[in-house]
Amino acid sequence: MEPIRFSDNALFKGWGEPMRTETTIEGLEIIQGSIPEGLEGTLYRNGADWQYPSGRDDDIFIDGEGMYHMFRFENGQVSYRSRWVHTERYAMQAEARRALFGRYRNRYTNAPEARDANMGTANTTAMFHAGHLYALKEDDLPYELNPDTLETIGRTDMDGQITAQTFTAHPKVDPITNELLAFAYQAKGDGTKDICFYLFDKNGRKINEVWFKMPYAACVHDFAVTDEWIVFPFFPLITDMDVVKAGGNYFQWQPDEETHIALVPRYGDARDIKWFKGPATSAGHMLNAVHEGNKVHLDVVLYEGNCFPFFPSPAGEQAAPVPPFLTRLTMDLSRNDGTFEKDRLLDVSCEMPRTDDRYQGRPYKHGFVIVYRSKDGSSSTGRIDFETGRLDTYSPGPGNTVQECQFVPRRPDAPEGDGWLLVPVARISEHRSDLVVLDAQDLAAGPVATIKLPVRVRSTFHGTWVPAETLKSGQYSYELGSA
Ligand SMILES: [Fe+2]
């Protein structure tokens, strides 16, 4: 067998150094403060790690096999566990003891024995719905995991209900109604324009499915939901199968194409879809959407250019990165002229937006983001109050980095934004992580508890919080709070 050695690529250095190991710690050290009473449940997060070196020079940070993490809060203690998601490709590579999959999402660069394999890495997010825990990556079906051990149960089409070949890594589980809203894009295979919206009831039964065509074979990383309309933005990061078959990038930035937005009726069908368009922009992540009279607002972290510099234009130009800003795109259904309006909501650049999840698709006033990313690698967690315009922040100190935060209500019926923020912190110079618990209403006060990990939580993208009783019953019992 070939000796295993990662290249000098900066991707594999410093904080990015592959971990390649699973960790179990029953009872982490709490080095400051204490766990708030009533904070009982599990934070699940998902990210990528490198199983074997690919030997290529075009690896990108969003690739790599799924490494799933859980922090279980129980009786004032927190336990930690990380496990590989045993996808089909993970198992193939483990057996071969080498990388068999090539360029990101490009099966034409795989080793011959992996040319027809399922490509999913299950590395992007965690979802818990109707008693089941999943690992998701948008180019494949979900993988189900055991919520206590993180053992992989297997790839699933949810009892035959997912008819598409893919499933989003940005589903919305409504913790008030326990419905699941999700979609699949390039749903009939690589480079297809097919997209499908799914609505599942609280028991995981599919109650609506709307298929339609995208304007081009877009990258649809996220979407947003309201009570009546589901919002699908299409940005010109486009798959050209001729390029893919020749071994090139799966997506290309094509700024001559426009941004399109489809409003899909939540309970209707494709005949009632409304379309809007504007100049080329891009985004990975939506904060929220709100339906207000004849208007639908999409609050999105918008790039006035390409959000993924590693997917350049067909000419190969890698344009300078553009800063993302939280922006409100408004579609006016009464005007019906096919355009949308654009208003900046925050003048500080931000990413990885989250809300109090009880308010997804409902009128809301708080957003949680990562702000102040600086050249020394540090970043902060921010809370935006849209009523006052105030930005409250928590900094983990110079050189340290925050990952995406998770809001947990103080009580099931607490007012919006009243609760805790759970934030994985990368202690870069110490080569290890902390998990901090912040009071979501006073970030500047610093952590109410700091939970020390002796290892790195190397890279996590997204996650979810499952209260202890929800883990048992399969249902969230949250309510909308009164202020
Ligand atoms: Fe994402």
UniProtKB/TrEMBL annotation:
The keyword Oxidoreductase applies. Its cofactor is Fe(2+). One of its GO terms (molecular function) is metal ion binding. Its EC number is 1.13.11.-. Binds 1 Fe(2+) ion per subunit. The keyword Iron applies. Keywords: Dioxygenase, Iron, Metal-binding, Oxidoreductase. Fe cation binds at H170, H221, H285, H462. GO terms for biological process: carotene catabolic process. PANTHER family: BETA-CAROTENE DIOXYGENASE, CAROTENOID 9,10(9',10')-CLEAVAGE DIOXYGENASE 1. Belongs to the carotenoid oxygenase family. This is Dioxygenase.
